C-alpha cells in the first residue's frame, strides 16, 4: 500500500468509527475503535489482541466471526417485540439502559425508541452523582433530561439510577472529610434535589446502589464510614419526600442466587421495614456469565418478594469469553431464557432491564478484558439467539 493510500485510509477513520473499512482493525484487547465492518466484510478475531475486517465468509485467523455485516452468525428468528412479550407475561416492562453519547446513533435510537420493544429506559450514567452534582450545590441535569425527554416522547417508563453509590462520586464528596451531620445533609440535599427534579417522571429509583461487599458485610465507602448504615435510611427518606410516587429501590450485584450477600439484603430490608423507612423494591442487577446462571435465582427472587417489596432485574447482561462461538451463543440463549423465566414465575418480579441492548455499547469489554458479546443484539444491531431466549422465557 502506498503512503498516500495509507494516509487516505487514516483520514477516513474518524468518520468511519462505526463501520471499519476493509482489512482494518475492528477489535482486540484494548481496542477502542469501531467494532463493525463495512458491508461485505466481517470482523474476525485473529487472536485476543487483534480482530480484522475480512471479506465475509473468507475469514482466516481463529476463523470466528465476532460481528458481521453479512449475517453469517446465528441470528434470532422470533418477531415478537420484547416489551410486548413481557406485558403478555403480566410484567410492567422489558427495558434497556442507554447512555447519552449513543443517542447520536440514529439506527441505535430507532430500536431503543420502539416502545413495543423497550417499555422502560435507565440512564447508564447521566443521573449519577458525578453527572448531577459535580461540585457542591451545583446541579446539572442536561444529560439526564435528554434521556428523560426521550422516554417521555416514546411513552416509556423511566428508572432513576442512582442517588447514593460508592462509585462515580466527585472528589468533593469522597475527600471532604465531612462529619456525620454534614454528610447527612449533603445526602439529603443530593437525593432530594435529584429525585425532586424528576418528580412525576420516574417509575422507580435505585436510591442506594451496591451497599454490600460480596461476603454480605457493608461496603466501607465514605457514606458507611461516616454514618454507618444510617446513610441508607437518610437517602431513602429524602427520596420519598422528594417524589412520593416513585418506587424506591436498593440495587446490587451478586444477589441473583441465595447466599451471604442476598441474606444481607434480606436482613437490611427487614430492618428498614421494621423502622418504617420507605423501601419498595430490590434491584437485582444480574451481570451474569454464560453457563453460570445461579440455580437458586427463582427461589431467591421469591425470598425477596416475600419481604413485601417488589423485585426487578435491573442490569441484565450475560457475558462470554470472546470470540463468540455458535456454542456460546446457544448457551447464552438458554441462559437468557432461564433468567427471564425466573422473573416470569415470580409475580412480584415486575420487570427486566438489560444493561444496554447491543454489544456495540456494552460496558463489558472495557471492564473484563477478553470478554463481551453479553447482550441480545450484536454490534451490528442484529438480533442474536439470546433474543429468542428472552421471548421463550416470557412465554414459558
Ligand atoms: O454502564 C456504566 C458504565 O458506562 C460506567 O463506565 C460504569 C462506571 O462505574 O458504570 C456502569 O454502570 C454500572 C451501574 O451503574 C451499576 N452496576 C454496574 C454497572 C456496570 O459497571
TrEMBL record:
UniProt similarity note: Belongs to the glycosyl hydrolase 10 (cellulase F) family.
Main subcellular localisation: secreted
Organism: Gloeophyllum trabeum
Reaction catalyzed: Endohydrolysis of (1->4)-beta-D-xylosidic linkages in xylans
One protein family per Pfam: CBM_1
Example of a GO biological process term: xylan catabolic process
First-tier enzyme category under EC: hydrolase
GO molecular function: cellulose binding; endo-1,4-beta-xylanase activity
Protein name: Beta-xylanase
GO cellular component: extracellular region
Residue stretches making up the CBM1 domain: 18-54
Pathway per the UniProt entry: Glycan degradation; xylan degradation
Subcellular location: Secreted
First and last residue of the signal peptide: 1-18
Disordered as annotated region, ranges: 61-81
Keyword vocabulary terms for this entry: Carbohydrate metabolism, Glycosidase, Hydrolase, Polysaccharide degradation, Secreted, Signal, Xylan degradation
SUPFAM superfamilies attached to this UniProt entry: (Trans)glycosidases (SSF51445), Cellulose-binding domain (SSF57180)
Primary gene name: xyn10B
